[in-house]
Records
---
Amino acid sequence: MRDVGIPDAGPPPAIDYSIWQLQLPTGSGTSPTTVPPNQLATFSNIYFYKADDGGQVFMSPATGITTPNSTRCRTELRESNPQDDEAA
């Protein structure tokens, strides 16, 4: 049953992945797996996938690879520059 006070927003807008790289809680040591911007539109795994409604799902496990200055693993989009390096 739809609440008549809330209009249907429709599907979420498309995400522009061109300035993002994905960091996953997998990898080796303190080097997480990263996925470059040119692969994100079609990339999918258990930590990063499209929802049935077209939205983007992120999932982080309780344990996994962390970066050198972090104690928690994560799945995140990190801003990058045109060379696919991390932005300053």
---
Amino acid sequence: MVLFSEMFVSELIGIPVVDKLQEPVGEVRDIILSLGEKFPRVTGFLLKNPRGAVLLMGEIELVGKQFVVTRAIKSRIVYTDYTRLRPDEVRLVRHLMDKQIVDTEGARVIRVNDLKLAKVDQDIRLIAADVGFKGLLRRLGWLGFFTFIFRIFRREVPDALIGWDHVEQLKTDMAAGRITVPAKHISEMHPADIAAVISQVHTDEKTALFASLTDKTAAESLHELEPKIQALLLMTIDTKKALGILDKMPADEAADVLGDLPRENAEEFLRLMKPRKANKARGLLKHPDETAGGLMTTDFVVIPHNLTAQQVIEKMRAEAPEAETIYYIYFTDDQGKLMGVISLRDLIVAPPATLIDKIMVKDIITVDPETEQNKVAAIISKYNLVAVPVVDKENKIMGIITADDVIDFILPPISRRIRHLLG
């Protein structure tokens, strides 16, 4: 078999197919590809003729840019029914051309404009996707003209190819909804970048992408999404998966997400969630978003004040893993009232036998749950705090607001920005 060294799918579509005696057989309508290998193999050509059949590669003698030649004469060619493709086979034009691929390096969604084929040993294989302007011009038949214009100005139409060995397939239930993920698996991206990608793809692909993530990665990404997308994803994925994601989220983020769902759906999730996480989320949902209560998290470390520095460190080892931040440790009396605070640095450098009462800061800056978010941000900025506690009228600590919560408020992710716009 002969194949030009560089060949694109757009150059093959529509070219004539002839038998060994140069008798016309049909035209190339599509190309059949077998997935599963690093460089997928072409298994046949779907012809545009009265039969609409697939010409298998074993029947082909030559593939060129001007025509395809079969091994046998027209009357002896063996065809396959194109409606009986194997589960691992797709049609390049129908299933991959113009479909979206996710550029994980740039956290963007781009479109496949053309596909590059090459001869590897005795096979024709898919080696790259063209996602640039050049691929689009080639498809439209304008590449020659624009190449001429560019050369007048001593420039070239740039290539934008993604090698297929850097592409991973993410399959949905429908081949037409298949998307590809180049460079590395999407779960290795930063959650904010994953959210940006999910926001750009079509509805079926949003669900497919989100469902492919681990519960932990999905939980980190969900809070970055627009409320409508959050609701769509949680209500379309498997309920067990949704509950696993909510369980991995901090209580304050879970409450934010549940607060954007229709009431009946939020209540159903709260009923099915683990009691401890559900109770925390219910408590947070009582507070308006624009207040300290709506901004705070209930995952923090509170320890009795009548301990030594060494005892506090030992107690933290057991309790701190669930806390959102452990830079500050808060101390309470027997009634749960806030007595003092100490930074992790001061705790570590203190002699082990030192009583916490002697080294903790007792003049604590606090806010109440009704404090407006702008004022909370001003307090954290003014006193250069990593976190500020939220206390009730009896000075019992209800939660803390961390500096990153304030940053999210000042420079909000998509979800929080939309939430503010909607009021």
---
Amino acid sequence: MTVEFLIDTAFDGDLALPPAIVAQLQAVPAMSQIIRTADGRTSLAEVFETELSWDGGTRPVYVLVLGGESPLVGIRLLAEHSIYLEMTDGGTVTIEPF
């Protein structure tokens, strides 16, 4: 499955996905977690564990389930990587290990 993500440098996890996408993954429930959204609200969110194709291999990741939100990539997944952005509508985003 290919999913388009928003890069969220304020999100300290791996991935955040809407429930419909999580349901399509072979994800295993891992825990519940209290989260605070950008607008200051707090809520309890489910977290699942799955594997992601990343850097030519697979990597275990935690997936936070966010209802109705856009898919997010967080800084935990981006650690030890460089991000290159074309700052234009529809511009390319390249993520590379360093």
